[in-house]
Each structure stands twice: as C-alpha cells, then as structure tokens.
What we know:
Radius of gyration: 51 Å
Number of domains: 3
Order of helices and strands: EHEHEHEHEHHEEHEEEHH
CATH topology of the largest domain: Beta-Lactamase
Number of strands: 10
CATH class of the largest domain: Alpha Beta
Structural class: alpha/beta
Distance between the termini: 79 Å
Mean pLDDT: 81
Strand order of the largest sheet: 2-1-3-4-5
Number of helices: 9
Amino acid sequence: MALTRILAVDDEPFNLEIIEEILEPLDFELKTVSSGTACLDIVETFKPQVILLDVSMPVMNGYEVCRTLKANPNTAEIIVMFVSARGTVEERMEGYAVGAEDYIVKPFGHDELRLKLQHLNDVLIEKERLEQQVEDATSTAFNAMANSSEMGQIVNYIEYIGSIDNSQDLGKALLNCLRTFALQSNVEFRLGTTTEHFTLAGGCSPIVVELFEMLKNKGRLHEFSNRILVNYELVSLLILNMPDHDPDKHGRIRDHVCFLVSVTEQQLRAIMTKQKLANQQHQFNQAVEKIHSKFHGLIELLNDNRINNEAIFKQLQEDLENRIPSMGLDEDQEVFIYQKVDQTIQKSVAREESIQGVKSAFKEIEDDLSLLLKR
C-alpha cells in the first residue's frame, strides 16, 4: 500500500475521535491536530501523504490552509481531502479552486471514508508508477545522450588513428581519447623485443610496470576496487578511476575501454606490419642494387674481353699477312695456316654470340627486378 501516513485537522475533538475510530483497524500512521496553524507547523516534519482538512475552523479556515500548503513546494504534492458539514456545489468548487483533490461531507460513514482513502491509495500508487516511469525514461534518455557523446569520441578516435604510422603517436592518441572520458590511464605496448609505456603523468610507476608484467598472460579483464586492467596480446591498459558510484556508467565505460583497446591493438599490428614490410623493401632494394652493380661489372668485363680479343685477332691477321709470303711456304702450307686462323676467329665469334646471350639474360633479370621494385 502506498498510503501510510495521514494527518487529520479539525477544531472539534469529537470529529477527530470519529476519524481515529474509523482508521484504527487500518494500517495507517495517523496524527491529529486541532487548528490550521498546527497543521502547518507539523506537516513538513510528519510528511503525510493525505490531509483530512476541516473547512470551518477559527483563525485560519481550511481553504486558507490548503492554499498555503499548495503554495509551498515542500508540501504542494500532499493530497488534501476537505471534510465539511456542507457539500454544496459552490463549496466543492471553492475546494477544488484552492487545490484540494477530494471532498467528503459530514456526517460520513465508516465505509465511505475508507473507500475514499482506498481510492486515494490507488491514486498514489498510480502516481508513484508514473513517476518511476518518468525517472526511468529520463535516466534512459540521459544514458542514451551520454552514450551517444561517448560513441562520438570513440568514432573520432578510430578515424584519427587510421592515419598514424608509429607506436608513439598511437599511445598518445589512446591516452588523449581516454582523457575525454575523465579516465586516468596507463598503457603498455609490447613490440616484439621492446616494450613501450605511456601515461599523461610521465612514465609509468614501477608498480604499474610490474602489474602489467604479472597479469599480461592472466586473462582479458581484471577489476579491483575502482581500477580495471584490460589485456590484449600487444596492448595492456590500466584505468585508475573507474566511475564506481554509477553502475550503469561503470558498465558502459568498461565496454568502451575494451573496445578501444581492441581497435588500438589492430592499428598497432598494422603499424608493425607496415614497418616490417618497409624494412623488407629496404633490404630488397639494397640487394637489387648490389645485383645490378655486379651485373654491370660483369658486362663491362665481357665487353673488355671482347675488345681485347678483337685487337689480338686483328694484330694476328696483320702479322700473318706480312710474314707468310717471306717464310718460303708452299701453297698448301699457306692455305692450312689461313684455315686454322679462320677457324679460331670463327670460334671466337661463336663465343661472342654466347656473351650476347648472357647479356640478354642479365637484361631480362634486371627488368624482372625492376617490376618487383615498382610493386
């Protein structure tokens, strides 16, 4: 039952006795006073939910008391039921005009008053239900607005880190994002053989570093007091001031934090992969340059060898043409010598064709390497 406290106001003690007799079997806390001023003196401390208010009283009548009650924010919500010996339309209209919710005419029976109070109890129950709905709707609306604002920060963070290409800037960006949620944070990045720590207050304290090391392989989430530690393979995050005074906000922020660590881990992996590929590309470029240099050195050596061979054969031909006529050889001997020299020159020419084939092969290899570099 919503209705538990009733205040009865009447300058006639007999009327108050009747009310006490009617309400005695019911589970109400009842107080009685004999004047309007006494009602106003007690009302804020007793905090009744319903006031049974006599209309005709000396010094301050019921209408004046009701008007005063409704003008006070602390008592305006109290339900007022006028109790009067007269129940004309004009008097009822006057009662409603000053803010009363109900009206009962003396003399009234036990059942009549109880039914009216039961009706007022139903009114209070419905009022409480509606107030709770409004409170829930308001809370939901505020949570939705807060969540919308928080998600906006997260979306901005995700868009921003997409252009980051190094771990230092990524760590600072994560701390700045968490700062928009008023969170004090420590971050650890594990980059293969090295570890990086980030905090807005400078370096992480030794105890925080030890905590990261002890718990990095002990599960995804650890909560203790108003702190929370989130672990991923490459990233760990320690929050020092989770909002433990607000369970809804605490749960919402915890979800946000886990998501932020997840996307940060993915971006860190992308950065590390990009850096690894850049290092491999650099090493490949160096290897190609080295191969290119050796290819050209070999080609130059072959060219020098070809030029030397041509000079030697040319000199040999000139020497033979000058010496053979004076050597006293017969015609068959001269023909034999010239044939041998021609055969040797032809073999040299064949080797030159092989060298051209080597050059062509080298050229194809260089072209293939150039295509790989462009990719």
